[in-house]
User: Which sequence fits this backbone?
């Protein structure tokens, strides 16, 4: 099974900051990676698919990059609505697995 | 919006059974794979199972293989998860989610979840 490892687990940042979250796969997954945002008590929301494609309606300050085993999610200028937990998920082959999550907190 | 509405969550004793349902609307249900993803209290997301659009292919996480059964009724636009031999570690919010392809892929729409608690 492919394992997904995110770093950091927690990230403290300020409004307007540029932040980057990393997701590593235990083997190559090409570009079959998605990023989701989840707020407390809510369902996850798709942000990025195929490593770098922005889902419709998602602000352009979100971007994704990478291929193979290393991927990043970048938020160019943090807004109040961005403080949440972020998860990566591969869909290269079953079983699909999620990273453990990165909680983005206000500094 | 693509409403997905889960139901069936409740408190059940260890070793018991429960069936979750997910009613879909707003899209052609029979075209897409659908999945169950769970989240234990205070923990991260865990993919549980996926069923292809026709129901002909099913996939499970090792943690539920042999205990959970995913199924769908395309005539009723409904997804199911039959959960048997439940354990305390199955306690979680269970989300249903729509995939972008007939066989799987990333999850573009999610329901709001239903809570399953396994405790004596």
Assistant:
């Amino acid at each position: 099974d492919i394992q997904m490892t995110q770093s950091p687990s927690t990230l403290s940042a300020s409004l307007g900051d540029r932040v980057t979250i990393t997701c590593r796969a235990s083997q190559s997954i090409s570009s079959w990676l998605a990023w989701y945002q989840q707020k407390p008590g809510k369902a996850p929301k798709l942000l990025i698919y195929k490593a770098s494609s922005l889902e419709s309606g998602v602000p352009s300050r979100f971007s994704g990059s990478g291929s193979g085993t290393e991927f990043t999610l970048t938020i160019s200028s943090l807004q109040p609505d961005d403080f949440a937990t972020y998860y990566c998920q591969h869909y290269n082959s079953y079983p699909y697995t999620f990273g453990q999550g990165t909680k983005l907190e206000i500094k | 919006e693509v409403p997905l509405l889960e139901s069936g969550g409740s408190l059940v004793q260890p070793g018991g059974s429960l069936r979750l349902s997910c009613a879909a609307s707003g899209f052609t249900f029979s075209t897409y794979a659908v999945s169950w993803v769970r989240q234990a209290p205070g923990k991260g997301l865990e993919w549980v199972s996926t069923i292809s659009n026709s129901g002909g292919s099913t996939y499970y996480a090792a943690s539920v293989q042999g205990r959970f059964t995913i199924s769908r009724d395309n005539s009723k636009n409904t997804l199911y998860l039959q959960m048997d031999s439940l354990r305390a570690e199955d306690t979680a919010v269970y989300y249903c989610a729509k995939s972008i392809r007939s066989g799987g892929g990333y999850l573009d729409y999610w329901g709001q979840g239903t809570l399953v608690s396994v405790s004596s």
